[in-house]
Design a protein that fits this description.
The chain is α+β, with helices and mostly antiparallel strands. It contains 4 helices and 7 strands, in the order E-H-E-H-E-E-E-E-H-E-H. It starts with a strand and ends in a 6-residue tail after the last helix.
C-alpha cells in the first residue's frame, strides 16, 4: 500500500463535499506532469491519502480518503467549457489522468502546516518542504503513522 497527500482548496472541493457525495468521486484537474505520473504509475486502488485543504485558514490535513479506481483520462481536459480544458490533449492520446477517491474519515480538527513542520518525524515530508506546490505527493509509511498518532484527531 502507498500513502499520499492530496490537496484541494475547500471552496472548490472539500472533504465535506466528498463525505456528502456518499460514493466515489473523480479527483480532477491535476495539470502537472509529476502529479500525472504519480496517478498513472504509482497510485493503486486501496491506497490511502490525507485530504489537505490548501489556501484556507489554516491550511492543513483534514481527513483521509481512499483511492478507488484505476487511472483514466480526465474528461475535463476535452471540455472547452471547463477551467481544466487542454486543447493540446487529444482523446486518442490524453495528457491528463484522474482517479476516483472515496471518503474514509474527517478528523475532528485540522492539522495545520505549521504543526506538521514542527512535528518530529515529519522533517522530510514533502508538504513541509519550502516551495513544495504539488497537488498530490507521496507520504512515507512512517510519516503516515506519525500524523495518524497526533493528538485530538478522533
Amino acid at each position: 500500500m502507498n500513502y499520499w497527500l492530496m490537496k484541494s482548496e475547500p471552496d472548490v472541493y472539500s472533504i465535506d463535499h466528498l463525505a456528502k457525495a456518499g460514493k466515489p468521486e473523480m479527483w480532477e484537474g491535476c495539470r502537472n506532469y509529476t502529479v500525472r505520473n504519480f496517478i498513472r504509475d504509482s497510485m493503486a486502488i486501496g491506497d490511502l491519502a490525507f485530504f489537505y485543504h490548501s489556501n484556507s485558514a489554516p491550511s492543513g490535513i483534514v481527513g483521509v480518503l481512499r483511492i478507488s479506481s484505476e487511472a483514466y483520462p480526465d474528461p475535463t481536459q476535452f471540455d472547452p467549457t471547463s477551467e481544466y480544458h487542454d486543447p493540446k490533449s487529444l482523446p486518442d492520446n490524453p495528457r491528463w489522468l484522474v482517479r476516483d477517491v472515496e471518503f474514509v474519515e474527517k478528523f475532528s480538527r485540522v492539522v495545520p502546516l505549521a504543526e506538521l513542520r514542527q512535528t518530529t518525524g515529519l522533517e522530510e515530508m514533502f508538504v513541509t518542504r519550502r516551495g513544495q506546490r504539488l497537488s498530490i505527493m507521496p507520504v512515507t509509511p512512517d510519516e503516515w503513522t506519525v500524523v495518524m498518532n497526533l493528538p485530538g484527531l478522533r
